[in-house]
Amino acid sequence: MGIVGIFSCHWAAMAGKSSGDNRTRTSVSIFIIAGLCCFFYLLGAWQRSGFGKGDSIALAVTKTAGENCDILPNLNFETRHAGEAGGTDESEEVEELKPCDPQYTDYTPCQDQKRAMTFPRENMNYRERHCPPQEEKLHCLIPAPKGYVTPFPWPKSRDYVPYANAPYKSLTVEKAIQNWVQYEGNVFRFPGGGTQFPQGADKYIDQLASVVPIENGTVRTALDTGCGVASWGAYLWKRNVIAMSFAPRDSHEAQVQFALERGVPAVIGVLGTIKMPYPSKAFDMAHCSRCLIPWGAADGILMMEVDRVLRPGGYWVLSGPPINWKTNYKAWERPKEDLEEEQRKIEEAANLLCWEKISEKGETAIWQKRKDADSCRSAQENSAATVCKAADPDNVWYKKMDTCITPDKGNGEDESLKPFPERLYAVPPRIANGVVSGVSVEKYQEDNKKWKKHVSAYKKINKLLDTGRYRNIMDMNAGLGGFAAALHSPKFWVMNVMPTIAEKNTLGVIYERGLIGIYHDWCEAFSTYPRTYDLIHASGLFSLYKDKCEFEDILLEMDRILRPEGAVILRDNVDVLIKVKKIVGGMRWNFKLMDHEDGPLVPEKILVAVKQYWTLGDNNSTSTQ
């Protein structure tokens, strides 16, 4: 009980005793005294929650300057809510989860190399997601490699990655003359070069910016297909453009792992037979720099998929073969007839999509998607364009690509889309036009206020949120993107994940805010390498998946993708979090359950955690760096 509660309850009891000296104590006076005691007890408990008037409790969740999770106060809410927890027996023994075998240090369950080889190679099917069945899932903790260290802070991480974190030298040999990556002592150095920009990504982006409005906030979200080590996205960041980069897990080992170690948004992915896990009209610009994607094949089906995710007025950049083939076919060591036919098919598909070529210089061509693409297509005489019949262009999870064009109408108009950063809190077109059922402009604005309040509370809990300690952040159940918007800073980025089973599909809204994200089902592994996120946030996620899959599987996946000494913030109902807490007790996490920022009577609680530092061969669950 707080000081106010103790003092006030004592005063109330003394008042009752004094009255008893003068007259018989009645049941009414006893009721009043008891009521006062209860009132001040609750007031004191509210103060003790850490958010009451007069309290100033500094809660640290990462080991820094000698602090660790153990200094978090015990809020004892389990006792207050034992009944609500469904009678959870805290005395039950916690199952300790063991480390996985060393061979799984860089395990990517849904892009496992051995499993991939059992699928057809046609149209890159074998490089797509192929997840293990339930009986083959690992039930252990993925170890970090020996010598693993915390990545360098941004922006140093853009140029340097510790060798121990991703010990793969193959790219330093294969891409030596292209300036991708160099091995220097105990670090990899990334000079910013690429196959199409050996002189550096900055100069290459300068060339693009002479045609594409990169600097004024018109272009905010970009898609980099076949990204390599994501230098294009890394150097776009300082121009306030955020790129979603993807590349397959193939012979160029660790491309995406390098990208994320550098602090650049990236996922393992490929343009094959399945639609990309992004909503329609998501990106202001799409890019391919010698990405080896057969754009003209199969009647332009891959270009049609890019068209689906490209906003009206958006840009498509293609650098490398077959652009300017007449000059370069000898250097590329390819028959000029093949290159000529390849470019013809690309130009034909672009014309069908109503993309206008606005620049071709050297080996780089830039097309712009017409803002009135729908009317342009309908006006084309004898158009071979087939319009997609699917009712929802955002329903893409494990859906096969079709040789058809996605109409731009019917999913919110983009005319009102503001430049960034104004876009972050402007009303998104999908909401303004009533496309998202049940989400009005008023509810959107209320959601923003709520998340500003929540994030303010998080910053009191974790003093490192604003310091740049956490570069790669994930929101596992992103909603309208309120968490990422409230947290927005040039020091970090947020991967907003839209669960495929969410009641409302709002990922398109998130992109209209100038943020990035991806569709995913958390009953499966995420398309990333182990140890690629510094902080993971999830609000209502476990309630959402309560009857869908095992909590242990979700928590093990969180542990796989979280870096040693990375932080976790879970927000959910108390009964759910108590079940989560029991599993977490067997993991190598330090954790505490905390009250809602509005006090202990709110059934929604917060679980904060830090993943302990431990590496391959270290069997001590309490080991530290």
Automatic annotation (TrEMBL):
E.C. code: 2.1.1.-
Protein name, UniProt field: Methyltransferase
GO BP terms in the entry: methylation
Keywords for the protein's UniProt record, in alphabetical order: Glycoprotein, Golgi apparatus, Membrane, Methyltransferase, Signal-anchor, Transferase, Transmembrane, Transmembrane helix
Membrane protein topology class: Single-pass type II membrane protein; Single-pass membrane protein
Similarity annotation: Belongs to the methyltransferase superfamily.
Top-level enzyme category: transferase
One GO cellular component term noted in the UniProt record for this chain: trans-Golgi network
